[in-house]
Specification:
heterodimer, A: about 260 residues, alpha/beta, Rossmann fold, five-stranded parallel sheet, 5 strands, about 40% helix, B: alpha+beta, 2 domains, four-stranded antiparallel sheet
Amino acid sequence: MTETTALPSFAVWKFASCDGCQLTLLNCEDELLALAGKIHIAYFPEATRAVAEGPYDVSLVEGSVTTPEDAERIQRVRAVSRRLVTIGACATSGGIQALRNFAAVEEFRSLVYANPTYVATLERSTPISAHVTVDFELRGCPIDAGQLVEVIAAYLHGRRPRVPSYSVCVECKRRGTVCVDVAHGIPCLGPVTQAGCGAICPAHARGCYGCFGPQDSTNTGSLAHRLRLLGMSEQDMVRVFRTYNAAAEPFRRESTRLEEVSTP
Amino acid sequence: MIDSPVDNTTQRAAGSAVVVGRAGLQTLVDVLATRGYTVLGPTVRDGAIIHSKITSLDDLPQGWGDTQEAGRYRLRRRGDDALFGFASGAQSAKPTLYPTSVMLGRRSRNGNGAPTSVGTPPADAGESGDGASAGPYALLGVRSCDLHAIGIHDWVLGGRPDAGPDPDYERRRRDLFLVAVTCGDPSGTCFCASMGTGPRPDRGYDLALTELLDDQTHQFLLEPGSPLGANVLAQLPGRPAEDADLAAAHQVAQSAAGRMGRTLDTDGLREILYSAVNSLVWEDIAARCLACENCTMVCPTCFCTSIDDTTDLTGTTTERRRVWDSCFSSAFSGVHGRSIRTTVASRYRQWMTHKLASWIDQFGTSGCVGCGRCITWCPASIDLTAEAANLRAERNGANGAQASRALRRTT
């Protein structure tokens, strides 16, 4: 089809992940038609069985690297991609499966699988950027549809994506949400977490869970002090820093420090 | 521009002031609505005092007060029927007059790539976050601190000779009807008395309201501050104010001035900040500062914004918006892809030095009106007044506990 080959080609790749982030692309209902007219989806198994050969103008990569096979496969993906954008907490920080990084994988394997001999897995779950050069990282568990459209629009028009790196607090204030921490004493990771979700949880009287990972100027030690004042134990704090972005460096460092001080 | 401190000590003459009861106050709300204003007043929402649309006195926080300390805000029951018995709410008038996001323009182009239209911002392009419809607005219950903040913005945004007016601000401000209120119950983080900005509104309002509440009566003294205010006042059922009413209002302000939870010694503060570039206090603050930007978002005078240009997927339409930004974000000082203020210590120093020192040189007043919001809403409980005292003590070579904390930490 000649009219589609002139459009920029996009490929969507999956590594260790739940598929939620790539499904965000299909959930962009208001933009799907405009999107279909502007890009050529050359490889997207979740949406179509049609496969077009690379190279691709833009690859969207979901998931982390957890197996030896995937460690090789990401190199091939990089080789056929002009630009490589990682999407979601798994791809940008290692995801919830990076909890393995804090324990011995051998123990999980023997407990979970009847015959672990056939399970080839790496000691750690690592983000894509630990293996290849990444052009842009889009955070979130899952990613925000509006931010994904912004990144695609930016690449279509040759500009930089406008994706802020400041804290969730800014989004709360912009939408007029009263601070759940200050006004209600609810533990909240908002001050150390990057914006992007639109501050959904505080708008529903919940603290931020840190789905978008660390903001650009993270002071996790100060926040831990705050969480302690709000009644959280060190063990509880270890758990809140170890969720979807457990292996993101500022969160990993803080949870490790808290684990050390909580262990007698 | 408001440049002289509030005189809380002189009792005013009765003049054209009027005393109304609850029914009269309700009439004020009705008259403003009839005149086409969307009336925004204090309401209780999500555990805080928030300005939102009101139609009836029943919408006001009757019987609610607040308790505010560094990093802590709680509503409390007062035990009386006061309608304005609380201190600074979660936000000032800033989101109404200077919304978080304002569309500056929109452009489209045709198939040849040529611009076909230059969009003008729609009448209500901004999302003020208060959930109310388009103005003109009448703001009911603006505290003296926030009134002074509006005065500062009138100068900074409304047309100082070297900059010219911000058209969006000018339009919102021109149409605004301001009902100020004497603060009767300041909070633990209030220090307007130190800044000379309260608690009694002195000018810049259309009407000034003082709630007069005792065991027998619940009345409101209304003083006109503009011809429009006097015109509205003439429509209200009430009686001419007597000297006793003025004395009672004076007493409300006097009592409040004596119950400020914080003080800020402004004597020589500008020079102290200018000489504190290399102070150890900044590092001590940075150890606690979350760089979350809450202080700048709730500050009634912080006005920094950035410009967001976006294109849609098809590339036929671009939009330019002005959105709130903050000197605490790394990207805010980004020049050619790199941040100039890489450390949080340098950002806090920039914010505080501008607010309390270079603001005076730039705009003729301090940038702080003593509302206390930056203290209350800081999740790290950082206290501007305490840090200013630390800088002063450091400069004086004092060996007080607070001052030496920063020094001890590095030795």
